[in-house]
Amino acid sequence: MKSNIYKRILVATDGSKLSECTLKYAIEIARISGARLYAVYVVDTADFASIPMESDAGWETMYSVLRDEGKDATQKVEELAKKVGVEVEQVELEGHPSEEIVQFANKENMDIIILGTHGKSGLSSILMGSVAENVIRTSTKPILVVPAISKKDKSH
Amino acid sequence: MESTIYKNILIATDGSEHSENTIKYGVELAKLSGARLFAVYVVDTGAFASIPMDAEWEMMYSLLQDEGKKATERVEEMSNEYGVEVEQVLLDGQPAHEIIDFAEKNNISVIIMGTHGKSGLDRFLLGSVAERVIRSSDIPVFVVRMSDDDNDE
């Protein structure tokens, strides 16, 4: 059941409810191909770099909150994947999300990158999430883009 | 080995030799998932819409149709090597629109397409068809960057 094409799969997660749909598609490819799944969360340091802080302690707190969020997010992928017997490597990076994802994919020889088009705001049924857009534009890897909210999923 | 998530896979091909890599990813996914595979080529009638509807138009149209036939046959050849069955589909109209429309009507789980295509855009831009499909599709889109080594200086 091994695949020569799908061996290492990167799925980007931001821990949001919306990313669960993306995870479903990613875990399934890993399951049927026997690929190793890398669940990647990027602590977006640019996000709060510009926030003026009274002290380094404030910045540290912010940073550790995001790190915890990342840990939860990748943990969640592992739990979901485990249910269907897929092994997951949890990866936490920090920096500019799309850059980190593209770099990691190259460095670690990923065969495919899977990500959602939602931003954390979930605003993007019209606009593509900026992380997805930047990854698509800059990576040479095959990319599976999962739309934020599919029409089918909306009809619950 | 059947997948409940990948049931119907659409490979959009433009017949360029760079599509081969894209096709490989699609066929492999179909093989692994046991999904039904559709090979779709869209005769881009918009590209020659300005030509008056006469013999010349007819010729153009039939040329592109032949090309489309060849393109989807190539997918079939590659699929056969993998023991995967494929349905060849020839559409005409505006490519992104036709691809999405077909995908929605046929309950496609994922659309697979190349991102360089024939328009040969700047390497940092997506092929316009892929970009349009990603922006307007509610169905996951799997884009494969076509190798531009031989095409890009």
Automatic annotation (TrEMBL), chain A:
Q: Name one Pfam family in it.
A: Usp
Q: Write down the SUPFAM superfamilies for this protein, in alphabetical order.
A: Adenine nucleotide alpha hydrolases-like
Identify the residues that the record assigns to the UspA domain, covering every copy.
Answer: 6-147
Question: Species name for this entry?
Answer: Methanosalsum natronophilum
- What is this protein's name? Universal stress protein
Give the InterPro entries listed for this entry. Rossmann-like_a/b/a_fold, Universal_stress_UspA, UspA
Q: State the family it belongs to.
A: Belongs to the universal stress protein A family.
TrEMBL record, chain B:
Give every UspA domain span: 6-145
Q: Which family does it belong to?
A: Belongs to the universal stress protein A family.
Protein name (record): Universal stress protein
Q: Which PANTHER family match?
A: STRESS RESPONSE PROTEIN NHAX, UNIVERSAL STRESS PROTEIN UP12
Q: Which Pfam families match?
A: Usp
Q: Which SUPFAM superfamilies match?
A: Adenine nucleotide alpha hydrolases-like
Q: Which InterPro entries match?
A: Rossmann-like_a/b/a_fold (IPR014729), Universal_stress_UspA (IPR006015), UspA (IPR006016)
